[in-house]
């Protein structure tokens, strides 16, 4: 009976994927203008292996394309060969074409359903190989003696004839049955020596779920032991000494065995969880191919360099990470990387560079996607947002450049002038951020510099099944927080809270952080305080912080995360999952991004405030803390001042040069240019030689105060002992206006 070759196709697919990954990595290391001989040899061997394996299994389209790529690599192996950008692009197309064929074969393992190889690509490869050979021959003829050239020309026809003869079928060529036998002979040793088995993901997930339930049951035993301690003490008091000693020994052995078994179960679960881990190359390698294909479609040149693809993440994360990465890559190509003409005019290489890298940071994976394109202009972002009526002109006037940059995450925002298949549809980075925050339980940050490029940073847990969780008590209930959102715990007194226009705040490391009881944010009512001592949990999302008043920190440990039931997943929920704790307690895992959004909605509730006349004084506030800027803005606006914000000293100086302000309030500790340098620079400007400048900082040493006065500050206020009336009184005194405006204004709470 005929031998079934299809049983070997799956093994070929696995081998081909490995070979193609090596090809992709090898191509990434090549650079136009030179030839890395060793790398070319490795690429040649990989394609040669693919060609041979596919030919034996009658996968002719794969064979044809691999053979054409092999021809070009063979030409590049010759001395004096030079790799140009066109040849490198063709080799990338070979990789992409082979990968598409292999993946189609994986979906439908029937060789007859494979499409034919791209003949245009194969012809282009042949022509490129001939061009490389001609170029090498010309370079060699310039350096080789005439008699050697004549000898080579005399030898060439014979060599070509021999090669042609060798490629023709011979009477002794193996027939299909013989070829199948050869495949078996090649594969049989591997089947005898295989050290791995294939397990479906469904069965693995079921096993992981069952083991997770066992771990949760096991976690209840130590709790039960603690609960039995009072009973044990009563029992021991009633027993004779010899029985009491035996009972104590029995309890000790039981406790030790429970601890040992708990550790074994934890280790077993961790090892099983590792089986679900997949390398980031699963999404990184296709991303590199996307860059090449989309760049060609957009008429641009770009190459994606990958680092850290060996880092492993849980399969749940890998499955959901592809869409955000594809969107960010498309955004980089469409909006970031310029056309070759524009890049050359700007002094950049014609080919754009996109870097996709990953590294592990404790229990988290940090993924950075950067480009060397045009960067993002905050002013252009602001103008687009105003044009699309996403923000008002009044709101933009008070924004710093960092806040303007965050507008790209607003639903419906797009800078594209034309709707295309790639952009302009208003379904943009807001979807990416929501996916990262809500589904992947991570964070997304952006940095950009005009003309230099943009970088998106994703910080993700290594696994969604098990995470580091802080358990806190609030109103007699337990709630969990993912550790990636927690900055620190802070013990303070209620009288140390600062009273601002829209609620209390606390000073944490040189910044004002708004404060609110967690019970109030969750709708559980006001906390029942028994003393003036407060315990604050500081959480952070991007550049914003929030201090949550809690009753106590209960525990911090790695816990199994259970998703919400399907009926509870719809909509934006404050709870993102469930964790088991103790004997039978099911604890809600809170979602800090949603908590922050809820807090902003409550804080932005319209409140009556004094109307600012058109002649109201204009104040520039410079501070690198978003929370501090917002608090100071709300306070000053409540007193009728017009406020403009800047994130750091250099941005503040630029805004001060663009328009004249009546007063400047600045922090000291800021990146790029600190408050002392800003004050000194402002005093060099004619318009600010007599302008009131207030330094508001957490530095309280006398030498800092002296330096502030030396550089030209009119007042020096310390955040730790801050009182809002002192700021307003000082500002009014320096402005020579008891009201801060031309008409009396009283802040409305």
UniProtKB/TrEMBL annotation:
Q: Which reaction does it catalyse?
A: ATP + protein L-histidine = ADP + protein N-phospho-L-histidine
HPt domain ranges (all copies):
1-108
Q: What class of enzyme is it?
A: transferase
The molecular function GO annotations come to:
protein histidine kinase activity
List-wise, which residues carry 4-aspartylphosphate? 667
This protein's source sits in the domain of life called Bacteria
EC number(s) from the headed UniProt entry: 2.7.13.3
Which intervals hold domain Response regulatory? 618-734
Could you confirm whether the keyword Transferase appears in this record? yes
- Domain (Histidine kinase) spans 258-464
Record's PANTHER family? CHEMOTAXIS PROTEIN CHEA, SENSOR HISTIDINE KINASE CHEA
This one is known as histidine kinase
Q: Which organism is it from?
A: Marinospirillum alkalitolerans
């Amino acid at each position: 009976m005929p031998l079934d070759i299809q049983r070997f196709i799956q093994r070929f697919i696995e081998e081909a994927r490995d070979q193609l990954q090596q090809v992709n990595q090898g191509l990434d290391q090549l650079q136009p203008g030179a030839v890395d001989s060793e790398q070319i040899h490795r690429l040649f061997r990989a394609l040669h292996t693919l060609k041979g394996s596919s030919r034996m299994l009658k996968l002719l389209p794969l064979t044809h394309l691999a053979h054409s790529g092999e021809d070009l690599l063979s030409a590049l192996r010759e001395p004096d060969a030079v790799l140009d950008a066109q040849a490198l692009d063709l080799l990338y197309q070979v990789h992409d074409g082979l990968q598409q064929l292999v993946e189609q074969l994986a979906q439908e393992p029937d060789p007859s359903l494979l499409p034919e190889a791209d003949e245009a690509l194969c012809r282009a490869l042949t022509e490129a190989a001939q061009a490389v050979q001609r170029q090498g021959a010309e370079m060699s003829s310039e350096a080789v003696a005439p008699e050697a050239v004549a000898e080579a020309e005399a030898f060439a026809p014979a060599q070509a004839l021999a090669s042609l003869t060798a490629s023709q079928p011979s009477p002794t060529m193996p027939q299909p049955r013989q070829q199948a036998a050869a495949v078996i002979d090649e594969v049989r040793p591997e089947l005898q020596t295989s050290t791995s088995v294939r397990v479906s993901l469904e069965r693995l997930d079921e096993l992981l779920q069952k083991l997770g339930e066992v771990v949760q049951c096991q976690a209840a035993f130590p709790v039960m032991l603690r609960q039995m301690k009072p009973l044990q003490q009563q029992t021991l008091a009633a027993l004779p000494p010899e029985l009491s000693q035996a009972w104590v020994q029995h309890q000790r052995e039981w406790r030790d065995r429970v601890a040992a078994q708990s550790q074994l179960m934890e280790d077993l679960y961790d090892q099983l969880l590792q089986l679900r881990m997949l390398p980031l190359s699963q999404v990184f390698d296709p991303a590199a191919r996307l860059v090449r294909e989309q760049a060609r479609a957009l008429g641009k040149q770009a190459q994606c360099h990958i680092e850290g693809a060996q880092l492993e993440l849980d399969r749940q994360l890998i499955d959901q990470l592809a869409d955000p990465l594809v969107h960010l890559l498309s955004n980089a190509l469409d909006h970031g990387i310029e056309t070759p003409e524009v890049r050359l005019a700007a002094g950049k290489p014609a080919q754009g560079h996109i870097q996709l890298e990953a590294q592990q940071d404790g229990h988290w994976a940090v993924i950075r996607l950067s480009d060397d394109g045009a960067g993002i202009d905050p002013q252009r972002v602001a103008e687009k947002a105003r044009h699309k009526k996403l923000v008002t002109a009044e709101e933009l006037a008070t924004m710093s450049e960092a806040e303007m940059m965050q507008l790209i995450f607003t639903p419906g925002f797009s800078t594209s002038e034309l709707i295309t298949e790639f952009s302009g549809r208003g379904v943009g980075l807001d979807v990416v951020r929501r996916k990262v925050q809500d589904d992947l339980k991570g964070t997304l940050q952006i940095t950009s510099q005009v003309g230099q490029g943009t970088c998106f940073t994703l910080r993700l847990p290594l696994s969604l099944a098990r995470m580091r969780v802080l358990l806190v008590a609030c109103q007699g209930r337990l709630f969990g927080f993912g550790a990636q959102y927690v900055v620190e715990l802070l013990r303070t007194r209620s009288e140390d809270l600062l009273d601002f226009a829209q609620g209390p705040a606390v000073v944490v490391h040189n910044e004002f952080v708004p404060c609110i009881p967690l019970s109030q944010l969750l709708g559980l009512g006001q906390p029942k305080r028994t003393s003036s001592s407060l315990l604050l949990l500081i959480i952070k999302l991007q550049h914003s912080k929030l201090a949550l008043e809690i009753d106590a920190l209960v525990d911090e440990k790695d816990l199994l995360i259970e998703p919400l039931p399907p009926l509870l997943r719809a909509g934006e929920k404050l709870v993102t999952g469930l964790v088991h704790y103790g004997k039978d307690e099911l604890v809600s895992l809170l979602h800090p991004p949603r908590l922050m959004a809820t807090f902003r909605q409550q804080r932005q509730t319209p409140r009556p405030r004094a109307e600012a006349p058109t002649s109201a004084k204009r104040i520039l506030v410079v501070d690198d803390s978003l929370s501090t800027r917002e608090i100071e803005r709300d306070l000053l606006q409540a007193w009728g001042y017009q406020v403009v914000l800047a994130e750091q000293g250099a941005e503040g100086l630029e805004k001060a040069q663009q328009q004249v302000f009546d007063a400047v309030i600045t922090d000291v500790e800021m990146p790029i240019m600190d408050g002392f340098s800003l004050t000194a620079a402002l005093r060099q400007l004619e318009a600010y030689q007599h302008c009131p400048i207030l330094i508001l900082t957490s530095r309280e040493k006398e030498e800092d105060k002296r330096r502030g006065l030396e550089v030209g500050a009119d007042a020096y206020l310390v955040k730790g002992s801050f009182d809002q009336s002192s700021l307003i009184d000082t500002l009014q005194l320096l402005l020579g206006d008891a009201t801060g405006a031309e008409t009396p204004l009283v802040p409305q709470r």
